[in-house]
Write a structure and sequence with these properties.
The longest helix is centred in the C-terminal third of the chain and has 32 residues, at about 165-200. This protein is mainly alpha-helical and about 240 residues long. It has helices at about 1-15, 20, 25-40, 45-60, 65-75, 75-85, 90-115, 115-125, 130-160, 165-200, 220-235. The two termini are about 40 Å apart.
């Protein structure tokens, strides 16, 4: 898991596609529009068109196909429950139930795979209370550190034989390991907060504005948005 998160973070920062050069604000607006249309679309034809557009966006962003396929398959595990619960004997209903989460997932992967995390969290700090936005930002960064710490701890337990023997012994070792990670996270948060105060933290971690600075690549985002709205206008009433 930690490797997947690191890979996504690196691709979003080091990518060289036109979508990577577009502003974070433009991509956020486009993603919200596409996901909103995918959720509200009453037409199967419109859902198919939006799904195709989402895959075109993700494919032209030069994202690894393995990542895209995993993102598409992940929501299917949950969508199948609704398919069985709401199946009316036709193929149209289950297909629409599957297309909605798959389309939204592809758009979300396109967004996080082309936008560095500060450009995703900075807009939230403008609409959410300061402590909430800062908490989300720090939680995302702390996840990398805590997952790495947990991975190293599990490797050390395995090398020292802590995952072998009676069940009671393994559960005790697992509990001690979990306690170690919790204490480490608490100590890490205390040190981070103290460092922020020493460096003059004033209630907003990311005060940058580059996420809203328009670029030439924003024209492509606008074209994609116009295409999505045109599809919605043309196919909304189709079966």
């Amino acid at each position: 898991m930690i490797r997947t998160l690191v890979e996504v973070d690196w691709i979003a920062t080091a990518g060289r596609s036109p979508w990577h050069r577009a502003s974070g604000l433009a991509k956020l607006v486009l993603a919200f529009v596409l996901i909103g249309l995918a959720i509200a679309a009453p037409s199967l034809a419109l859902l198919l068109a939006l799904n195709a557009l989402a895959w075109v966006l993700a494919g032209t962003a030069r994202l690894p196909w393995r990542m895209l396929l995993l993102a598409a398959l992940y929501p299917l595990a949950f969508a199948l429950l609704f398919v069985f619960a709401r199946w009316d004997g036709t193929w149209r209903t289950p297909l629409m139930l599957v297309l909605r989460p798959v389309t939204a997932s592809a758009i979300a992967v396109w967004l996080v795979g082309t936008t560095p995390y500060p450009d995703l969290f900075a807009p939230l700090s403008r609409v959410l209370p300061g402590p909430v936005a800062d908490g989300l930002f720090l939680t995302y960064r702390a996840a990398f550190d805590l997952l790495g710490r947990t991975e190293r701890l599990m490797r050390a337990i395995h090398l020292r034989g802590g995952d072998r023997g009676p069940l009671a012994r393994r559960l005790g070792v697992a509990g001690e390991g979990l306690g170690t990670v919790v204490l480490y996270g608490f100590e890490k948060s205390q040190r981070t907060w103290a460092t922020m105060l020493l460096r003059g933290h004033q209630g907003r971690i990311c005060g940058c504005r580059h996420w809203a600075e328009t670029t030439r690549a924003d024209g492509l985002v606008a074209v994609a948005g116009v295409a999505a709205l045109a599809l919605a206008f043309a196919l909304w009433r189709m079966p």
